[in-house]
Design goal:
The complex is a heterodimer of chains A (244) and B (161). Chain A has 244 residues and is of the alpha+beta class. In chain A, helix 2 packs across helix 3. Chain A is elongated. Chain B has 161 residues and is mostly helical. In chain B, 68% of the residues lie in helices and 0% in strands. Chain B contains 7 helices and no strands. The longest helix of chain B has 23 residues. The radius of gyration of chain B is 16 Å and the shape is globular. The chains are: A alpha+beta (244), B mainly alpha (161). At the A-B interface, helix 1, helix 3, helix 4, strand 3 and helix 9 of A face helix 1, helix 2, helix 3, helix 4 and helix 5 of B.
Chain lengths: 244, 161
């Protein structure tokens, strides 16, 4: 009886059912090449494990321990209304409420801090904030996770909000601590949330290599998202249809 | 019964060595690996209730690490070359012993594999996940995992001999 190499690998990996295993073991007795092949696969596995064994047991960087112990946590979804009601009341800003605060508190800070060459990325007026210039262009065209040389703007993810609009998270890397959400309205990208994550002295280490999008923005996404974020194909289609 | 956030925090601390090891095989650079793990920790905590105790905690974290790598870290990786183990301050002990030289050449061989094969090999052969668990982490069919494993193994065998 012969077995293909994939089956012998699966044997070495403990992935076969008892019956196939027994048949291989029986074949091994009469065909030494089967035993040799399996021994080779098992040897490689042991060598690999030895090469990567205990490498990282010691000296875990403090910032990772700090992140594990103190990074903000949030429930992903409220699946049970009854249990949500008896859960301790936790102050959660709804998106519109939060964005108003963000806009009024942060606009001055943001504008003051943006060392932007050329056109301003954010415009305020008529009681709302919209994306303009380089930010509007990036929101229109740039795909998620793609780094565009010289753009300084990173698009994190795209999704459809419960309001039906397409929304996208962004981070401005020239001022890496500013991130937000913009949603496509008929005439403009409306900035519905904006966060500045200026590190406080105490958690500077923890912030050091933090995600480019502030946790509070991710929380706002979770509160407003309808279903899942768009995958790459859906995003490209949405972009090519002008986010309508 | 979903885990509490404190349980999740403890589980993260306990699995940190393995998370760092997996991130290291993906990013091929120690500093990038720790950045990736940090982002994955933050993401995991923001959706800690999505983990179901029926599935292995480290599998869930490996999936988050992989996604963070794909949609955030890879695009802004600071280093565009492979950091060879001997350059990266690895604890090599007595580097002259044959066993140590074998370890280094094995590490180098794994890091030289294409990303997809590297991830499959790291999950199954190093981390000990089943084919099914690795397929879930990588979001591909089991057949894809086994073919990536086979190709990765073939390349690694060559470096052994």
């Amino acid at each position: 009886m012969t077995f293909d190499d994939a089956t012998l690998m699966a044997y070495a990996d403990g992935e076969l059912d008892a019956d196939t295993r027994r048949r291989i073991e029986a074949a091994m007795a009469s065909d030494p090449t089967i035993a040799e092949t399996i021994a080779k696969h098992q040897h490689l596995k042991r060598e690999l494990q030895a090469a990567f064994d205990t490498q990282f047991d010691g000296d875990v960087p403090e910032r990772l321990l700090t992140a594990a112990r103190t990074a903000p946590a949030a429930a992903a979804t409220v699946t049970d209304i009854a249990s949500a009601r008896i859960a301790p009341a936790r102050r959660r800003w709804s998106l519109p409420e939060w964005s108003t605060i963000a806009a009024s508190l942060l606009l001055g800070v943001v504008i003051a801090r943006l060392p932007w060459k050329g056109e301003e990325p954010l415009l305020a007026g008529d009681g709302r904030m919209t994306a303009s210039g380089p930010l509007a262009a990036a929101l229109d065209r740039q795909l998620s996770g793609v780094r565009v040389e010289g753009s300084g703007i990173h698009i994190g993810l795209s999704y459809r909000a419960k309001t039906g609009e397409f929304c996208r998270t962004f981070a401005m890397s020239e001022t890496s601590d500013i991130s937000g959400i913009a949603c496509r309205t008929p005439d403009a990208w409306r900035v519905v949330a904006l966060a500045s994550s200026e590190p406080s002295q105490s958690d500077e280490r923890y912030r050091m290599a933090s995600t480019t999008v502030a946790p509070i923005i991710l929380q706002a996404v979770q509160d407003s998202i309808d279903g899942d974020a768009l995958d790459a194909t859906e995003e490209t289609i949405a972009r090519d249809r002008g986010w309508r | 019964m979903p885990a509490s956030v404190d349980q999740i925090r403890d589980l993260i601390v306990t699995t940190l060595p393995r998370l760092r090891r997996f991130a290291r095989t993906i990013t091929r650079h120690p500093a990038d690996a720790d950045d990736l793990v940090q982002i994955a920790i933050e993401r995991a905590l923001l959706r800690f209730e999505q983990w179901r105790p029926e599935s292995k905690f480290e599998s869930w974290m490996f999936g988050i690490i992989r996604n963070a790598w794909i949609d955030e870290v890879r695009s802004r990786q600071r280093h565009d070359r492979v950091f060879l183990p001997e350059e990266s301050g690895e604890r090599v002990g007595d580097a002259s012993s044959e066993a140590q030289l074998n370890r280094l050449s094995m590490q180098r061989a794994l890091l030289a594999l294409p990303e997809e094969q590297r991830m499959a090999v790291a999950l199954v052969l190093i981390e000990g996940l089943s084919y099914k668990e690795a397929a879930d982490v990588l979001e591909v069919p089991i057949g894809t995992v086994t073919s990536r494993l086979a190709r990765g193994r073939e390349a690694l065998q060559k470096s052994l001999s």
